[in-house]
Amino acid sequence: MEKLLSDLPAGQALLTQVRDFYGPSFKVEAIDTPGGASYFHIDTGGAGSQALRTAKIQLNLQSKRQRAAAIHELLHLCLPARGYAFIDRITPEAKHCARKEWITDVQSKIQNVVAHDCFLEEFLEAGLPLSEFVSPRLDFPKYEETAKSWRGIKLTPENEWYAQGWWAFEYFNNYISSEHGDLQARQLAENAEKYAIRVLPNFADTAALIRDWVARKKHCSVGTYEEAMRELLQLIFFPTVGFCLLEAAEGRPPNVLRLYAAQQPVLTAEP
Question: Among 185, 208, 207, which Cα is nearest to 195's?
């Protein structure tokens, strides 16, 4: 990664910041998978662990934006180093149990896209173009077909939270991504709202609340990030979550500080 960032001072500074904070827990791996996407992973080691297990970047060798991807993933790792909390536990109610896979998927995706909004300006200030901020979109949701699949299904307390949450997340994910260089996101957000209203007549109110949440930018400040995330998760009818922080430990992996009462989690979460 040093060679990749050798002519980019901002990238070198980010790499130093990440190495200094994460110490021996920081790893970089080369991957070679279709689509060209690179990834980051933070493994807290489970509920009983007091020290971070790994903070890893997987850099895709097939990517045409390797340098931008390296900066992007380093910025993801920089947020916890700067005091941003992240979800470490999810506690579903009985009604959520049939949708655990969706819940786990969404908690990862929603933290990812919110982080993008937090560090987009820093990415651009490093001298990289908006067109290289995210990987090209490979999946295109078919919202009209999804809306049709809900025809004739009576909404009950057991399934309405999922209908509300599914459409709210789809709208949010596309709406916020429209400012992140995703060329299809704005149209997809409009489509999501259009077809959500066919399932949930009052969805326009939810969409307006989501737009207001994005505009207020509370999530972009370390002091109000957790509060903002809890507000967002309520908008998508998400289960109760617990957050944690990472604390620097010189020469060792960071300490994991859990911001909730010690108990066995129902679902563990990975950012």
Answer: 207
